């Protein structure tokens, strides 16, 4: 249980790092802190993904007292607020990625790099983080549930 909590915390902190980068892009894009040729406006999937901080907070809240309810809510909301926007984002950006691949044309950039390439890297990294987070959360939930059942038998 302690090892699983440690792994999940690492993944949550990694997620917070990704989340802060996307939040920075959204803020810079809307507040026009840098020209749009340096930092492109965010894609539509990035806005609902900003809600993905909620499952992470619920996950962290579940740890101090081994709260099964918070962990279950964290897992469900990870699917809704983290994984679903990533799937939508991969589909939303696909035509631009196809155009870049076929014709070598990119119209949006992030510090000189094709925005669609950068954001696909973010999607892949975030999908791995959330996948592992769900996997370890399920193992932790099983562990907590087993220990709860053993306590009830005594």
From TrEMBL:
Topology in membrane: Multi-pass membrane protein
Q: Where are the transmembrane segments?
A: 12-33, 70-89, 109-129
Family matches, as Pfam families: Jagunal (PF07086)
- Do the record's keywords include Ligase? no
Q: Does the keyword Ribosomal protein apply?
A: no
Cellular localization per UniProt: Endoplasmic reticulum membrane
Keywords on this record?
Answer: Endoplasmic reticulum, Membrane, Transmembrane, Transmembrane helix
Can you quote a single GO CC term?
A: endoplasmic reticulum membrane
List the PANTHER family hit by this protein, alphabetically.
PROTEIN JAGUNAL HOMOLOG 1
Family the entry assigns: Belongs to the jagunal family.
Protein name as annotated: Protein jagunal homolog 1
Q: Which species is the source of this protein? A: Pterocles burchelli
């Amino acid at each position: 249980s302690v090892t699983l909590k440690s792994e999940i915390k690492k993944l949550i902190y990694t997620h917070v790092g990704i989340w802060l980068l996307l939040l920075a892009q959204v803020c810079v894009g809307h507040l026009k802190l840098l020209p749009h040729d340096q930092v492109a406006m965010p894609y539509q999937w990035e806005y609902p993904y900003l809600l993905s901080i909620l499952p992470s907070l619920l996950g962290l809240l579940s740890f101090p007292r081994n709260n099964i309810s918070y962990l279950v809510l964290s897992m469900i909301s990870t699917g809704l607020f983290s994984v679903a926007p990533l799937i939508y984002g991969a589909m939303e950006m696909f035509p631009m990625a196809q155009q870049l691949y076929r014709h070598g044309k990119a119209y949006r950039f992030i510090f000189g790099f094709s925005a669609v390439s950068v954001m696909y890297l973010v999607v892949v990294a975030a999908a791995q983080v959330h996948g592992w987070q769900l996997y370890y959360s399920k193992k932790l939930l099983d562990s907590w549930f087993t220990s709860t059942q053993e306590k009830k038998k005594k």
